[in-house]
Amino acid sequence: MTNRAMTHCFKHMRALIISLLYLNLLRISVASVVSTGNFNNDFFVMWAPSHVNTSTDGRERSLKLDQESGSGFTSTQMFLFGQIDMQIKLVPGNSAGTVLAYYLTSDQPNRDEIDFEFLGNVSGPPYIVQTNIYADGLDNREERIYLWFDPTEDFHTYSVLWNLHQIVFMVDSIPIRLYRNNADKGVAYPRWQPMSIKISLWNGDSWVTRGGQDKIDWSKGPFIASFSDYKIDACVWNGNPRFCRADSSANWWNRRRFRTLTRVQKRWFKWVRKYHMVYDYCQDYRRFQYNLPKECSLPKYS
Ligand SMILES: *[C@@H]1O[C@H](CO)[C@@H](O)[C@H](O)[C@H]1NC(C)=O
Ligand SMILES: *[C@@H]1O[C@H](CO)[C@@H](O)[C@H](O)[C@H]1NC(C)=O
């Protein structure tokens, strides 16, 4: 090797090393696992502190609704993609008219939002879970299912997986709803705005139970729901969507196996839709006057 060739080679190696270091830095700057499991660290109470209890170790929290007020808390950080798992025990007994909302929202005028809403019932279980998605400020995408267990007896895990390819709602790891990114076909998809995690318990008796026919029976209150052992494994918003969208190995949510449902997930998903589905906006021809939203004509499972 001549001297010149060697200098040239070193230059290349230096450039390579610098870019490797730089890539590594990028990776480190993406904080993805953020949950500490301590409600006092990851969330703050945004509504009625007097109606919120947190255990001394911070690992359990409960919300109360009475005639005076509902209550709620919200995450201190915002996120763009990842997975949130929350363990919830719902309001027991006659919960008609109450609604527990557990959702991710960007809180913007053109907001993006991913909603779980638990709708109370006079007889307690079966509980209806309503899910909805706002993209670019528009919703009207409600689905409803019956839960296949009594959600007031024990904690169960309610999760959202959200990435550039799909949004999957899960109950104890079973997918109950799938919303695919069909932005290339003109269907709005939440993919730019960071969202915070919010949970609140409130009076929804104008609509929640049998379209508002069953009102809250205050003599059955106070109504209490509890939360524990959550996990947030998501991309913390740092002002630049590029970090969370990148196909780097730290961004696990964009990996191939999280881009579609697995075979096993698909089987469970079909089971939920076949035996537990109560309402699907994509079948509500009357409401949309035979002009169903565009995503309704696209494949459901792939
Ligand atoms: C908090 O604890 C107090 C005292 O035990 C109880 O009266 C109240 O209902 C609890 N509130 C919630 C939200 O669990
Ligand atoms: C309430 O529970 C009863 C069973 O006890 C069920 O038949 C009914 O459909 C439920 N109603 C709603 C609105 O979930």
From TrEMBL:
A matching Pfam family: XET_C
Cell compartment(s), UniProt: Secreted, Cell wall; Secreted, Extracellular space, Apoplast
Residues modified by glycosylation: N121
EC code(s) of this entry: 2.4.1.207
Domain GH16: 33-227
GO cellular component term, pick one: apoplast
Enzymatic class: transferase
InterPro entries in the record: Beta-glucanase-like, Beta-glucanase/XTH, ConA-like_dom_sf, GH16_AS, XET_C, XTH
GO-annotated molecular function: hydrolase activity, hydrolyzing O-glycosyl compounds; xyloglucan:xyloglucosyl transferase activity
Keywords on record: Apoplast, Cell wall, Cell wall biogenesis/degradation, Disulfide bond, Glycoprotein, Glycosidase, Hydrolase, Secreted, Signal, Transferase
Modifications the protein undergoes after translation, according to the UniProt entry: Contains at least one intrachain disulfide bond essential for its enzymatic activity.
Residues of the active site: E113 (nucleophile), E117 (proton donor)
Signal peptide: 1-31
One GO BP annotation of this record: xyloglucan metabolic process
Family: Belongs to the glycosyl hydrolase 16 family.
Protein function: Catalyzes xyloglucan endohydrolysis (XEH) and/or endotransglycosylation (XET). Cleaves and religates xyloglucan polymers, an essential constituent of the primary cell wall, and thereby participates in cell wall construction of growing tissues.
Protein name: Xyloglucan endotransglucosylase/hydrolase
Gene that encodes it: LOC111308173
